Amino acid sequence: MNNNFLANKQANLSIMRILATVAVIFLHTCNTISNNASNYDLSDSSLLYFTTGNYLMNWAVPIFLMITGILLLDKEKKITYHDCIKKYSKRILLALIVFGIPFSMLEIIMTTKRISFTIL
After folding, report:
1. Can you give the pTM of this predicted structure?
2. 8 A C-beta contact, residue 20 and residue 60
3. How far is the C-alpha of 26 from the C-alpha of 56, rounded, in Å?
């Protein structure tokens, strides 16, 4: 019975993760369009649709945080300070280096409309 409960819990977490992923994609799409409405030829009803979609999908980010909490705060999983510093900090730094720096450089380039060595 315990294995069935754990399998069902993992299946439910997977379904929630899939729904939250789709909602985050929809959230980013609607947010981009509604925040830059002057760049698009949108009617008032279309702008209302995208703005409403943006507000309705705001539940997805807290769901991701809750799923992360469920997976990381398992009572049977022992996490030491050494694991946090060595394993998880490396992952966070790697994600920031791989994604954060290039995206911030793109934002600076798009804002200033020029490319220079000082962007790094």
Report:
1. 0.58
2. yes
3. 10
